[in-house]
Amino acid sequence: MGRPERTTLDAVAAAAGVSKATASKVLNDRDGVSDATRQRVLAAMKRLRYEPSTARAAGSLHPVVTVLFDAYESLYAAQVLAGVVAAGLELDIDVVTTNPTGAHRHDPLSAEWFHRVADKGHVGVIVVTTEVSPEVAGDSTGAGLGLVLVDPVTARDVDDDGLVSVSATNWTGGYQATEHLIALGHRRIGFAGGPAESQPARQRLHGHVAALSAAGLANDPALTKQDGFRYEDGRDMAAAFLDLPSPPTAIVASCDAGALGVIAAARDRQLRLPQELSIIGFDDTYAAESASPRLTTIHQPLREMGRLALRTVLAQSRGQAPEAHHYELVTSLIVRDSTAPPPGPPTA
């Protein structure tokens, strides 16, 4: 005898008396379906023993991992995702992506959302630069899913919550950036940081302050801002620094996108770069090499972070305890054309 024919979504829709589009909305937990219709479709799926094509059927299909991003459009996100996908290809893992602003019936990272992901046959979730609550570790475990955070946005120490995270040595990177500028002779250095609630942003700022302190320099509050990781944030923070009575001769940006915004603010004031203002970024994305001037930046191994996150969440799904709760990959300084000694003798 041949294998029984798999029930199709068309058959489910017909049995429930709805369109295939409506049945698909129920399957993918989307809005726009009444509770009564939703229950009718779910009952038809159960009665017909419908198995979604994304489900794992007797090990015949590749395991699936969900990657949740706060935003897709950043170069940072693209490189992390490239690492996740590359590891997936190596390990026969399929990768699907989503974000918190999608049309989800349940709030992403809620207990209901985790169970819905598990019901689709997925084995784990990777959460990238997205705010998490202390409950997510228990909720993901309760749904039988592995969970790994990449550069978590949380005001708490993730180790205290039993969460597993992957990031770079952000404190060291912040220190390296500022140390480089100090070695060039800069003494007034602005810091255009990411949001205060971001753990990586806080760590980079702490490294910056430590480098100033090690050089015997005071941390001027007027030269520190923590507004965000976007191009617009970098531009606005730099504008505020450059309008000071005594502006900085160099600016550390917490990401490459912000550094491009700093460049724009400097160009608006017709400053020569790097002769009159040195700029250093963080990430070493594609934009750093093609910027004008080419951007000195802190390289963090984004692809490797994505690879490690995928391997770790897969191990969790197989019942293996993580070797550590927090993995930090090494940063390094990449010197290009956007940094130079300050004009004239350094100020005390």
TrEMBL record:
<keyword id="KW-0804">Transcription</keyword>
<dbReference type="InterPro" id="IPR046335">
    <property type="entry name" value="LacI/GalR-like_sensor"/>
</dbReference>
<feature type="domain" description="HTH lacI-type">
    <location>
        <begin position="7"/>
        <end position="60"/>
    </location>
</feature>
<dbReference type="InterPro" id="IPR010982">
    <property type="entry name" value="Lambda_DNA-bd_dom_sf"/>
</dbReference>
<dbReference type="InterPro" id="IPR000843">
    <property type="entry name" value="HTH_LacI"/>
</dbReference>
<dbReference type="Pfam" id="PF00356">
    <property type="entry name" value="LacI"/>
</dbReference>
<dbReference type="Pfam" id="PF13377">
    <property type="entry name" value="Peripla_BP_3"/>
</dbReference>
<dbReference type="GO" id="GO:0000976">
    <property type="term" value="F:transcription cis-regulatory region binding"/>
</dbReference>
<protein>
    <submittedName>
        <fullName>Substrate-binding domain-containing protein</fullName>
    </submittedName>
</protein>
<keyword id="KW-0805">Transcription regulation</keyword>
<keyword id="KW-0238">DNA-binding</keyword>
<dbReference type="InterPro" id="IPR028082">
    <property type="entry name" value="Peripla_BP_I"/>
</dbReference>
<dbReference type="GO" id="GO:0003700">
    <property type="term" value="F:DNA-binding transcription factor activity"/>
</dbReference>
